Amino acid sequence: MKTIIKNVHKSFGDTQVLHDISLEIESDEFVVLIGPSGCGKTTLLKIVAGFIPPTDGTVEMDNHVVATSSKIVPPNKRNLSMVFQNFALWPHYDVRKQLLFPLNHHRYISKEIRGRKEERIDEVLEMVGLSEYKHRYPHELSGGQKQRVALARALAAQPGLMLMDEPLSSLDAHLKQEIRNEIKKISQNVKSSFLYVTHDQSEALSLADKIVVMNKGRIEQVGTPEEIYNFPENPFVARFVGKHNLLNGMWHDDVFVVDDVVWRKDNVSEAFKQKGMIPLRPDELKIVGRGSVGSRSGDGGTVGTTGGVGSVDGSVGGVGSGLASGAGRGVPGAAGGASVGGGGSDAAGISGTGGAGSGVGDGSVDGFVNGLPGIINSVYFQGNQYELNVDTKYGELKLFEPIGKWQVGDKVQVGQR
């Protein structure tokens, strides 16, 4: 079933929470609404469900208008089901009766399913792995089992559209992963469209055919997971999805320049070029080897620059630090667990925990080597302090923002592999 949202606005009193939202959900498509708390994604879901009317605009389902500012088709007369964040199970019904309710009351249920309700209950319970829990009550189920029952209840009537409002937010990390995988598998085997709300980027990237990024009641970008992650259209999307690093400089066509550092990057949105920014994904910054040159040694680290190559190699408590290096003018190296100098007047600095070392080559280098492989705390670039997301292949990545000024060693070159 195709769902079309056209120019939807929503206000509560003087507060406008949705601004001109237009979106199409194709048949059998899995669409994820993602954005920070308060961005309007749940409000949009409620309008699609029929719980609240739009202030302006329309919602169409299967070529029928189901919502305008003056007309609203109630939820029970729409070809949809919903999975709520808090499960919303009836405490006095066992699992069988939870699933029987939509089979008795859903308006769009097929004659084929209506004629074999018990068999349909068994099919759906097997689909979610709860065949043995048919006669259990909600108080006899774990959180993960309750969410599976809620999912099974929504699936039972085989709706044209499944609405899911942050269904995994109350589950622990292990259960989130497990049920997320089940939802993905189920979505590929049923004839329903999905509209799924979350603030979790990993859920969106793993589940969606199409991602809709929202912020402050507006749609920032619509695209496939690959498009959203690889080609963000503005700084908000870059920061919110994929934890891009945003560095400042100057653009000349597809070439990004900071002093004598040159970086060629295709398919960058004009929004970044107008702001003089380059978005760098964590996997564009990599540890590329281990350093063997150094002008001085410090406590647990060796730092130096030689002929356009900057490197740091050190260890703390027997654990080797990460290293990054780059060679040649205009082709900066990757940053990760190390500082990078590119020659000339270029200087670099990192700060972290563990051993320390310093050196003087063509440029000034100050560094503190982190004891964990490839994980750095911060770098200094053009006078701003950044923490850089780096794909280290070891531990967790970190989130970055410029957080202050620095006077010594205030330039770091980072670049393509």
TrEMBL record:
<dbReference type="InterPro" id="IPR017871">
    <property type="entry name" value="ABC_transporter-like_CS"/>
</dbReference>
<keyword id="KW-1003">Cell membrane</keyword>
<keyword id="KW-0472">Membrane</keyword>
<dbReference type="InterPro" id="IPR047641">
    <property type="entry name" value="ABC_transpr_MalK/UgpC-like"/>
</dbReference>
<keyword id="KW-0813">Transport</keyword>
<dbReference type="Pfam" id="PF00005">
    <property type="entry name" value="ABC_tran"/>
</dbReference>
<dbReference type="GO" id="GO:0055052">
    <property type="term" value="C:ATP-binding cassette (ABC) transporter complex, substrate-binding subunit-containing"/>
</dbReference>
<dbReference type="InterPro" id="IPR003593">
    <property type="entry name" value="AAA+_ATPase"/>
</dbReference>
<dbReference type="GO" id="GO:0015418">
    <property type="term" value="F:ABC-type quaternary ammonium compound transporting activity"/>
</dbReference>
<dbReference type="GO" id="GO:0016887">
    <property type="term" value="F:ATP hydrolysis activity"/>
</dbReference>
<dbReference type="InterPro" id="IPR003439">
    <property type="entry name" value="ABC_transporter-like_ATP-bd"/>
</dbReference>
<dbReference type="GO" id="GO:0005524">
    <property type="term" value="F:ATP binding"/>
</dbReference>
<feature type="domain" description="ABC transporter">
    <location>
        <begin position="3"/>
        <end position="241"/>
    </location>
</feature>
<keyword id="KW-1278">Translocase</keyword>
<keyword id="KW-0547">Nucleotide-binding</keyword>
<comment type="subunit">
    <text>The complex is composed of two ATP-binding proteins (OpuCA), two transmembrane proteins (OpuCB and OpuCD) and a solute-binding protein (OpuCC).</text>
</comment>
<keyword id="KW-0067">ATP-binding</keyword>
<dbReference type="InterPro" id="IPR027417">
    <property type="entry name" value="P-loop_NTPase"/>
</dbReference>
<protein>
    <recommendedName>
        <fullName>Carnitine transport ATP-binding protein OpuCA</fullName>
        <ecNumber>7.6.2.9</ecNumber>
    </recommendedName>
</protein>
